Amino acid sequence: MNGQMQVPVHLRPRHRLARTAFAMSLGLLAWTGAASAQCSLTGTGTSVDPYQVGKFTDLVQVGLTCGMSATYKMTADIDTVGQAGQAFLPIGTNADTSAVFTGTFHGMGYSIKNLTINSLYELNVGLFGEVGNGTIDSLTVANANIVGKSNNVGGLAGLSQGNIVACYVSGVVNGGRNGIVGGLVGENNGTILRSRTLVLTNGDTGSYLCGLVGMNDTDGVIRNSYTSGSILSKVYNNIMGGVVGYNSGTVTGSYSTGRVNGGYISVVGGVVGENNGFVDSCWATGASVNSTLESQVGGVVGINDSASILSASYSSVPVACGSGCQVGGVVGVNNGAIHTSYSTDSVTGGTYSMVGGVTAQNGIGCTISFSYASGRLSGSDSTTVGGVVGENSGIIRTSYGSGIASANVYSRLGGV
Prior knowledge:
20-stranded parallel sheet; single chain; 13-stranded parallel sheet; disordered N terminus; mainly beta
């Protein structure tokens, strides 16, 4: 098992999921049964005179009769409970390009409460379906119940290529098979700043799951954001992270305090499931990061891909996996670079697993520098356990492990 770890079972990124050609007679409606011939909101929709949104009937008109490129601001909390006969369709569906939200929505610190979406269609699902070159700021979506059967699913937006600033989502977000599911945004290719979630995120087989963003694309940037919810999957072949499921962009100054519990044959990380980009100054301090069997599990990152960088990050959460796993206090499998990162809690692997204080496996030519682990390391039968690395084919510089290491019969133990 020397060299870079090949993981034939896990998903590869599906950048820009295929848009459906789903044509609805109500395709541009935010809420069915809510059409209006003219915009009746107070204001003119400009940056100096935004449309005012203060009640449910105002919310109905956002992006519908008042335009996808207009500027809006909330003037009061809106509770969606009791709006009989109003089936929600996300603002900015992907029925056609004119339905993408490119305007500005100022939440002004107000909340949209008890939002429920149950989408049977392959749309981008969230309060906003697809956000183009637009901005959403200072908005709370409280006690949401969002269900999307496939594609991109998020509490605030299914897909965002714009700017999301100081937003918060709480509630439950569920995705279907092969979906991209995030507590805040399903798929992000824009910028997310100072945002957070307290969301229970669930998904089916073959999904990207996380507390904040399911997939962060190449141009995606996430800064100073966090999640305190739980990310759960009892099925297989998922990529799961506390903050991001799959990252090929930039994630900095962000953290998770919730549980990340994966099924079998999955990639699981306390902050990022799989990193193919840049992760810096991030941490996980939740209850647990674990998976059942044949998975790659790390306290910060599950798999750190080739040419990817993890720096100045740490985990203080117990990390565990069953048999046939690669389990690391910081990274499950490292095929890139780990700098100035550490783990302080226990790392446990089952039979036929690799266990490492920093990473379970360090690939050919891959580097670990100025990093350490101080938690207890435990292996079952036929395991490989190392204070820094379970199995090393790369370069280790100025790094150490100080925790107690133990394993059962037919195992290999190493201080480094």
